Amino acid sequence: MFNKILIANRGEIACRVIKTARKMGIATVAIYSDADKQALHVEMADEAVHIGPPPANQSYIVIDKVMEAIRATGAQAVHPGYGFLSENSKFAEALEAEGVAFVGPPKGAIEAMGDKITSKKIAQDANVSTVPGYMGLIEDADEAVKISNDIGYPVMIKASAGGGGKGMRIAWNDEEAREGFQSSKNEAASSFGDDRIFIEKFVTQPRHIEIQVLCDSHGNGIYLGERECSIQRRNQKVVEEAPSPFLDPETRKAMGEQAVALAKAVGYASAGTVEFIVDGDKNFYFLEMNTRLQVEHPVTELITGVDLVEQMIRVAAGEKLTITQDDVQLNGWAIENRLYAEDPYRGFLPSIGRLTRYRPPEETAAGPLLANGKWQGEAPNGATAVRNDTGVYEGGEISMYYDPMIAKLCTWAPTREQAIEAMRVALDSFEVEGIGHNLPFLSAVMDHPKFVSGDMTTAFIAEEYPDGFEGVTLHEDDLRRIAASCAAMHRVAEIRRTRVSGRMDNHERKVGTDWTVSLQGHECNVTIDADPEGSTVSFEGGGKYRVASNWTPGDQLAMLDVDGSPLVLKVGKVSGGFRIRNRGADLKVHVRTPRQAELARLMPEKLPPDTSKMLLCPMPGLIVKVDVEVGQEVQEGQALCTIEAMKMENILRAEKKGTVAKINAGPGDSLAVDDVIMEFE
Known about the structure:
Layout: E1 4-7, H1 11-23, E2 27-33, H2 40-44, E3 47-52, H3 63-73, E4 77-79, H4 89-98, E5 101-102, H5 107-114, H6 116-125, E6 133-134, H7 141-151, E7 155-159, E8 168-171, H8 174-192, E9 197-201, E10 207-215, E11 221-233, E12 236-242, H9 249-265, E13 270-278, E14 284-290, H10 297-304, H11 308-316, E15 333-340, E16 342-343, E17 349-350, E18 353-354, E19 357-359, E20 370-371, E21 374-375, E22 385-390, E23 397-398, E24 405-413, H12 416-429, E25 431-433, H13 439-447, H14 449-453, H15 460-464, H16 476-498, E26 514-519, E27 522-531, E28 534-539, E29 544-549, E30 557-562, E31 565-574, E32 577-582, E33 585-592, H17 594-600, E34 614-616, E35 621-626, E36 633-634, E37 639-645, E38 648-653, E39 658-663, E40 670-671, E41 676-680
Parallel strand pairs: 1-2, 1-4, 2-3, 4-5
Antiparallel strand pairs: 6-9, 7-8, 7-9, 10-11, 10-13, 11-12, 12-15, 13-14, 15-24, 16-17, 18-23, 19-25, 20-21, 22-24, 26-27, 26-33, 27-28, 28-29, 29-30, 30-31, 31-32, 32-33, 34-41, 35-37, 35-40, 36-39, 37-38, 39-41
């Protein structure tokens, strides 16, 4: 076994590999750019080596710099994580020449299956059903348009070396094909150092289901069930689960056996993933093979008990698999939500900045342990587990140079229904401040009837949120539970205020029992009957709730019991009440005396400033190009400029017809959120 491993990656996956290496007694080496000097993976590793400036193409994906770090530290093996150099055959070749083990598949397998164009040709030659498309290299946008017309719109434009949603665009017409080709090419060059593009038919209403395979160098191969990855946005997975709520055992077996056969055909040895699209009749089609560890591997680990990182290291060291196909058992259900540094209220655009507060829910373990590949007993009734794979910490910064994912929150439970409920509570308990993030959106998905039913496709987000995410409108029952809780919390805060020392004589403050609570456009009158164990909150017109909690003023997380059911609220302070976040809703809750409420109704509403004639920067980023000039008339939907942030290019378009009056920024300018890019007459 190795004594020292270098992790050629950063962020949460680097931290994930370090944890398993530490468990195995293996020393670790981290590499870092200028932007990651204070990163968590650098702190966790036994050694750390600086490799260059922040841009990945000047640091993390420069093979020579990584090789220098290997030589300097004497690392015997390299784990590439995902992205960056994980599917780069030249990197595997360089390691082989240096006599350093690659914790991944052989170079030949990477070349055969890691390249999307080559892998599809191999799959076709092996009579594996594939999606119609053009597998040759595409020289320019004109050829891309011609090919797209031959295939028939809609088409998917993809980077050959792509992954993680980078370098991918859906085009529905010639204009989008032309724009998508160039943007995908630029993103591919920036993210992977390889700008080759291919085009395939975009299959509507598909499910994205992938099979986890594990092979050794002795000819053994197994599959560890499937992962449902249909909840995607911009071709980037957001929610994953294992197993899939759609597959039956027969289809699972057929997909698994085909995946293993494909892996063996190219001499695969390591953990890998074969991705399929599956239609409503359970017909499945080979999509691609990822010759690396997947982002969503934790859900497979949670339902099988197999540490995939450990298995990858053991295979790289030449060991045989100790697990057979008969040993693989799928136990319970696991769900993963990806926490992204992006603002769902601004079209999910990237968000950067400092994490002023970062408090994940407590990680817990539950269920049986795996011994020799087999589950030992059953999980206790009602047992759940919470796992959070992350690469950040409170006070750290989210950089504009890398992927916006900052954590993967996972829950496990004996059933899917229980796993979803555990995830709802975990999301409510996850505190993140300082940046825009998608926690509210994830909470909304967990409560969405289509997701709860398991009846979703890759078009879920586009269909259910066609105009973007604007928050959640809670049901009346949920609002009343929150109103009762806030009334009880406000009473606690008022009692504390009466105990402030130094008050004027004869000005004793008394806390009443009657209050008016307003939230989400609703107003309700309540009466509080308190005792040492909690409060009974009665609503005018009928209905009452028993609220118990150990919340104290200043706590930003309230764990309450409302009529015997748990309720978790994120709590902020606003004048006369609270800012409450729960289940994807962001509410201002005001708790006032009846007289204060009467006066508040007379207050004029403050209107936001008029920005209808301005193009505001929706995120921190760099202007790549400006497509218009002063005096030019623009039409609705016309491209105005392109902004790059977190390796993604975003085209800003005109919302309506107008004439450009002033342009305040040009290519190369770095802008903050809401900076005015241009103004219109």
